[in-house]
Amino acid sequence: MPPGRGGPMGAGFLTEEEKKNRPKVTWPLLKRILRYLKPYVPQLLLVLAAIILSATLGLLPSVLTGEIIDKGLIGQDLDMLIKLIILSLGVSLGSNLIGVGEHYLNNWISQHITYDMRNQMYRHLQGMSQRFFTSNNQGDIITRMTSDIGGVERVFSSTFTSILSNVITLVAAVVIMFRQNWIMALVGMAIIPLFVIPTRLAGRTRWALTKESQECNDQINGILGETLSVSGQLLVKLFCKEDYEYGKYKDVNHRMIRLNIRESMAGRWFWVLISTFSSVGPMLLYLVGGILMIKYNSSLTVGDVTVLVALLGRMYGPVNMLLNIQVEWIRSMALFTRIFEYFDMKVEITSPEHPAQPILSDGTVEFKDVDFSYTEERQILRKINFKLEGGHSIAIVGPSGSGKSTIINLIPRLYDVNAGEVQFDGVDVRRLDLNFLRQNIGIVSQETYLFNGTIRENLLYAKPDATEAELIEACKKANIYEFIEKQELGLDAVVGNRGLKLSGGEKQRISIARVLLKDPALLIFDEATSSLDSISESKIQEAIDPIIESRTSILIAHRLSTILAADEILVVKDGEIVERGVHSELVKAGGTYTELYETQFRRALDAQE
Ligand code: ATP
User: What is the residue with the minimal CA distance to atom 1 of ligand 1?
Assistant: First the structure.
């Protein structure tokens, strides 16, 4: 018995989780799905016509077999026989050719729908806030982009069309059978329930195993991801865990092959049952047909009986597929529901409709009574007030976790304040065009991110039309040119996965060069807390000192030399500015700054010396 088109046997059951999360199929949901089809209506109509034609033409050879037997063979009419055979072959070929066209078109439509959806999702995710990316698992985001939207492609290319073509085949077959002989049609249909039970049992067994092997597969991927990643493999090496990890991998791998073998054998016994039943159907029809013809002198012919048997055979596939379709349907709806959930997440931070135009752009920043919290439970910043005039610099210092980076995050609107306001160039940042704001701010963060590419590509990210001379100048200013010159490929040296081929200091200096190319009105420098060696440190220091002098800048500082370069120092503790002033005054005040100086800055200074 051929399986129904697009109806995988193993997918016949919903998992407990799927049952629990069964989506509500509502009219708005359907309407939303249909909206994706709207641009492709002409192509869809063509597919519909092709499906109807190919499904009905596909049944015709079975009907023609009756004529071949009755008129050609029994009627001994050779001419007719040849004509019917040619016709039958022609119809078969025609139906298959239409099928090819339908497959192409169908694929074209579903690929285009997923293309639209992927682009839309990517654009949507790009607009999501920092909060979204820090609170959602990266794996989930990628799954949504790849598997879920990939699943949608399957729904359009296979589920929808297979429902349609199977229903058409089934209805057409039933109508023809009843037209041939209603008693025989009823007998044929009586056998169908016999298939339901073994089909479902086979499906259940296989489904359970598929689930288990999926879990196994996840485990394998987990092990690979953890132990073959750049930092993972390093940990394994340094703790000499190669044999332990290999053993773990080998075990799961072995479990996987055992499961695969069982899976491929699963349900074979039920298939024996199903195959036996599929031979019972035709035999029953021959028997009843024979009785009708011999005992009751029915007008039924040998050809008629053959047609009925052939049609019955054509019905099993669609019946089986439609038996399982409910599951496919629910899964598809769940897929759409999940994707739409993402689409419905509000883009938190957007440009105002009518942005304000600052009169002068010199990077002036002012915080006015700013309160902020990432979550409702805990307030991070309280009543932050300070003003940084254009051309000046401020150093922010404070214990770890006091809120320094958080203050910085509010300026380019990675987050919005809960109360008060942050002004840039004298205007509330929420009233400025987002692109304008972010174009005018350059951040060198603690964790420098470089794309996997060449140094040049990473630099050009800031200014795509920078000339070679500009690139070199920026690198010189960032104190990295000497290093680049030593590279065989110079600016075209590859930085490796996330810049891992470079040292922390080199990465940071490249990112300083990148920011210099961007040439922002305000420069923010989040100094790395991790200990760089004193040579790298002084190189970075040499790079930033002259930059700070000429620019509006904010420095989150951990080293005395950086602090001393700033015009004003803000001391942050538990989300509040507790002290402010210049070094010479603060160090004498005996407060948090003095404490920090004693424990942190001076030690760093001693280490440097
Ligand atoms: P460090 O000097 O160690 O970098 P910091 O002073 O810059 O520290 P912040 O990064 O501003 O500190 O963090 C302030 C507080 O906010 C910390 O307690 C931190 O746990 C919390 N926090 C930071 N980012 C988030 C986030 N995305 N969601 C929730 N809480 C956060």
Answer: 400
Give residue-wise pLDDT tens across range 580-605. Answer: 998 888 888 888 889 888 887 766 55
Interval 232-246: pLDDT, tens: 888 888 888 899 999
Pocket-forming residues, ligand 1, beta carbon under 6 Å: 134, 374-375, 380, 398, 400-406, 529
Nearest CA to ligand 1 atom 19: 401
What is the tens place of the pLDDT at every residue in 485-535? 888 888 998 887 666 678 888 888 888 899 888 889 999 988 765 556 667
Architecture of domain 446-519: 3-Layer(aba) Sandwich (3.40)
Give the C-alpha distances (Å, rounded to integers) separating 78 from 64, 71, 75, 304: 15, 9, 9, 19
- Helical axes 504-518 vs 468-477, angle rounded to 10°: 130
Inter-residue contact 365 to 554 (CB < 8 Å): yes
Q: Which atom of ligand 1 is nearest to the CA of 130?
A: 27
Q: pLDDT tens digit string along 19-28?
A: 666 667 788 8
Pinpoint the residues of the chain covered by CATH 1.20.1560.10.
27-176
Hey, whose CA ends up nearest to atom 3 of ligand 1?
A: 400
Which residues of the chain register pLDDT less than 50?
Answer: 1-12
Q: Which of 533, 543, 544 is nearest to 505 (CA)?
A: 533
Give the Å distance between the CA of 406 and the centre of ligand 1. 6
| ∠ CA 293-294-300, rounded to 5° | 10
What kind of architecture, by CATH, is found in domain 27-176?
Answer: Up-down Bundle (1.20)
DSSP string across 475-495: HHHTT-HHHHHHSTTGGG-B-
Mutation to probe ligand 1, out of 402, 409, 525, 578 (largest number of atoms < 8 A from CB): 402
Using left for φ > 0, alpha for ψ between -120 and 50, and beta otherwise, residue 166 falls in alpha
Report which DSSP code applies to 363. Answer: -
Measure CA 164 to chain center. 29
pLDDT of amino acid 2: 37
Q: What is the Cα–Cα distance from 287 to 274, expressed in whole angstroms? A: 20
Ligand 1: distance of its center to the CA of 127 in Å? 22
Protein fold of 357-440+522-536+550-609: Rossmann fold (3.40.50)
* Residue intervals in the chain for CATH 3.40.50.300: 357-440+522-536+550-609, 446-519
136 C-alpha to ligand 1 centroid (Å): 17
pLDDT, position 560: 80
Distance 126 CA to ligand 1 centre (A): 23
b/e burial code for range 153-189 (CB count within 10 A of at least 16 → b): bbbbbbbbbbbbbbbbbbebbeebbeebbeebbebbb
Residues 516, 392, 418: CA angle, nearest 5 degrees: 90
DSSP code at position 229: S
Q: Sheet holding 381-388: strands in order across?
A: 381-388, 365-372, 419-424, 427-428
